Fold:
Amino acid sequence: MRKPLVAGNWKMNGSRESAQSLVAGIKEGLASAVAAEVAICPPFVYLSEVKSLLEGSEVALGAQNVSHRGNGAFTGEISTSMLLDVGCKYVILGHSERRALYGETDVLVAEKLIAINAAGLKPILCVGELLEERESGKTEAVVARQLDVLLNSVEGLAALQNTVIAYEPVWAIGTGMTATPQQAQDVHAFIRQRVAAKDAALAEKMRILYGGSVKGSNAAELFAKADIDGGLIGGASLQVEEFLTICQAAAN
Ligand code: 13P
Structure:
């Protein structure tokens, strides 16, 4: 059995004050332990503070990005050892916003994934297609390309042993336009098959999250699908009640 995971990606949102009230609300709401793993991924500058605020809870801490390089003269970057130092467990990588707005390529994403795994952190690897790619029937080809760069390398396949995949159709991110449970399930099943072709045991244990306009109102029907093992949540992770409803849906 794969333990569901709900991870909140705060993106570039919030303040010290909002982080405090958000974490307090989440801790209180999760006090009756849910049968899902929960993680929150605040902006870098709030990681330490959120880690302290999370003390006494089971909620894990994650970062939204990391450098693939070790410590050194890389102005403005953050290393895996720094993330470990402040208590992170997870690192999101390959998010479509980073691919589209910051030019991250499949190859760079693969380098980051290998670095994250080597450091003992757990990668949450985002994959997903653009609207025009879906409409022209290229969804599987795009997702396959994003995965194959890792599946076809020895180091990549080793790092995937520790990886959570997040399928995030780009057209569903922040648009309110969620993939239907069946659309999501179809791609999740495709991802699992693609991994199984290289390593059946890995495919069976790998958690594949859905992300893209998940809300309290649609989480349960998404998470009911066989290959959907939880969610990567953007906007709704900034609202205590919404986020808690989603965590509860994953636990059921
Ligand atoms: P939304 O939930 O706001 O659509 O964002 C999804 C996402 O990008 C999570 O990483």
User: Anything to note?
Assistant: The longest helix spans residues 181-196. The first strand starts at residue 5 and ends at 9.
